[in-house]
Amino acid sequence: NNFLYDGDMRADGYVQVALDNRGTPALKGAAWRKAIYRKNGQVNIRDMAMGAKKILELPYMDKTRTAVWGWSGGGSSTLHLMFQYPDLFQTGIAIAAVTNLLNYDNIYTERYMGLPQENMDDYNKGSAINYARNLKGKLLFIHGTGDDNVHYSNAEMLLNELIRYNKSFEFMAYPNRTHNISEGEGTWEHLSKLYSNFLRKNCPPGGR
Fold first, then answer.
1. Is 72 a known active-site residue?
2. Strand partners, 67
3. Rounded to whole angstroms, how far apart are CA atoms 113 and 116?
4. Three-class SS of residue 176?
5. To the nearest 5 percent, what fractions of the chain are helix, strand and coil?
6. Can you give the pLDDT at residue 24?
7. Which helix (H) or strand (E) element contains residue 12?
8. Which pLDDT belongs to residue 74?
9. Among 17, 180, 195, 200, which is least packed by CB within 10 angstroms?
10. How many CA atoms does the CB half-sphere of 60 hold within 13 Å?
């Protein structure tokens, strides 16, 4: 079951799907794993979108009620999918997301993307912030201001970009919480309620 949802998603009528995109350490060989080199935010996002399109062809799937969510790198993927494929997902919840690859630590980013001085085009194409103008659906964006992994500047830069293009969205900042957003009395319960209520409101479960 979904660890953030404050209930039983299956019993409530949701269908949950997880996809292995290229770049994940699945047992599919080196070419599968290495395809993401210098293409983070491109190859993997297209794989997720095309996989979702295929799944939505199933007769019991409702194309008008599709949601995507993720945390950290998954939050980045959520933003990409909401921005690059705005007609595929109506609802998204992105938590602690890297919005600009230039804002993340070089020991990780340069391992997969090369040096920005040599590969700036792919850094730009792989950064969700550069597609923010395309947002159509309902987005909940969450970040801890004391994030010790994905710096809060990622959130502020994306907020300014969404404001620039007059996009409607919801945002929750958790004061001085780290990347886990777990510090402080009641924090986890609050996050779970926020997440669950947003999902139920914008992507209501159950058959029609």
1. yes
2. 91
3. 8
4. coil
5. 45, 10, 45
6. 80
7. helix 9-12
8. 95
9. 17
10. 7
Is 151 one of the annotated active-site residues of the chain? no
β-pairing verdict for 67-71 and 91-95: parallel
The Cα 134–Cα 74 span in angstroms is 19
Catalytic residue, from 143, 147, 151, 196: name it: 147
Beta bridge partners of 139: 92
Give the pLDDT confidence score for residue 26 in this predicted structure: 78
User: Of the listed 179, 182, 190, 192, which one is catalytic?
Assistant: 179
pLDDT digits (tens, 9 = 90+) for 19-48: 888 888 778 888 888 888 999 999 999 999
Q: What is the pLDDT of residue 132?
A: 98
| pLDDT on residue 53 | 96
- Those residues of the chain that have pLDDT short of 50 are none
SS3 letters for 60-110?
CCCCCCCEEEEECHHHHHHHHHHHHCCCCCCEEEEECCCCCHHHCCHHHHH
Q: What is the pLDDT, as a whole number, of residue 33?
A: 85
Task: Tell me if residue 153 is catalytic.
Answer: no
In single-letter form, the type of residue at position 159 comes to L
Options 6, 72, 190, 192, the catalytic residue = 72
Q: Indicate the pairing of strand 138-144 with strand 67-71.
A: unpaired
Q: How many helices (H) and strands (E) does the chain have?
A: 8, 4
